[in-house]
Amino acid sequence: MRYCIANWKMNLNISESIDFIRSLSKKNLQNNKTTIILSPSFTSLSDVSKGLKKTKIQLGAQNVNSNTHGSYTGEISVSMLKEFECGWVILGHSERRQYFNEEDVILNDKLNTVLANGLNPILCIGESFDQRKNNETFSVLKHQLDIALNNIEIGNNKILLAYEPVWAIGTGLAATTDIISEVINYLKEYLMQNFSLNIPILYGGSVSKENSSAIIDIKGVDGFLIGTSSLDVNEFYDIYLNMIKR
After folding, report:
1. Residue 48, exposed/middle/buried by CB under 10 A (0-12, 13-18, 19+)?
2. Could you count the other beta carbons within 10 Å of the beta carbon of residue 24?
3. How many helices (H) and strands (E) does the chain have?
4. Residue 210 bears catalytic tag
5. How confident is residue 155, by pLDDT bands cut at 50, 70 and 90?
6. Is 93 known to be catalytic?
7. What one-character-per-residue DSSP string does 14-68 give?
8. Element (DSSP H or E) covering residue 121
9. How high is the pLDDT of residue 229?
10. pLDDT tens for residues 25-73?
């Protein structure tokens, strides 16, 4: 199975989200080997959930608190997400790490809570420009995985891993196919040897209709986590088409 995931971040209000769904739903989405997941803002979850009822498109959230309830102003819990029939949640996006000091130990707590409550996490990892320049990519990814996945029990849930080099996110500069291939091969081998995990690995970071064909052709790439290009329904659909043609 491949995954075409939209991360709308703090974009698209309710009416814009509904317009997007209406336009996307009119297109041919019958490929059974590629799952589409839309991750709107919290305020749009309810309406987006209703808009997806008669489609095969699945719903994701952009974040969740590691606690199931309590005095955590401005946060959202797994039970709240499940009320919207939200099956997926993005964890550890570089923007959460950078702007909200979300460390790997926090992600470990979130992963445990998400999996224990029947949601499917999309775990994001990636290195900064300086880390790549200093040849620290693999040590950084290893550190992120070792802490985030410590004593994780997946059970009957699904878990996706998204490799998102921080220096490529929102910059228009995607990683080269050689870089992506090298990292994906490392991640596949490391996950199997150290966690006995064989899970889908996605790429994220300035994915576009222009580069998506070359990236999806890379062995081991199982889909995309798409930011900016997911805000335009036609661009997003073009990426989806490039995926199902390969």
Report:
1. buried
2. 21
3. 10, 8
4. no
5. confident
6. yes
7. HHHHHHHHHHHHTS----TTEEEEEE--GGGHHHHHHHTTTSS-EEEES---SSS
8. strand 120-125
9. 96
10. 999 998 889 999 999 999 999 999 999 998 999 999 999 999 999 999 9
Helix (H, G, I), strand (E, B) or coil at 160: strand
pTM, two decimal places: 0.95
Q: How many CA atoms lie within 13 A of 106 on its CB side?
A: 12
Give me the pLDDT at residue 33, please. 92
Q: Which of 95, 127, 164, 235 is catalytic?
A: 164
Distance CA 62, CA 202 (A): 16
Q: Supply 164's token pair.
A: 């998102």
pLDDT at 75: 95
Give residue 218's pLDDT: 96
CB atoms closer than 10 angstroms to residue 95: 20
Q: Are 7 and 225 in contact (CB under 8 A)?
A: yes
Q: Is the pLDDT of residue 210 over 80?
A: yes
Residue type, 116: A
The pLDDT assigned to 32 comes to 86
HSE (CB half, 13 Å, CA atoms) of 14?
8
H-helix or E-strand spanning residue 201:
strand 201-203
Which of 93, 95, 127, 235 is flagged as catalytic? Answer: 93
Sign of CA dihedral 114, 224, 23, 32: negative
What would the mean pLDDT of 6-15 be, rounded to a whole number?
A: 98
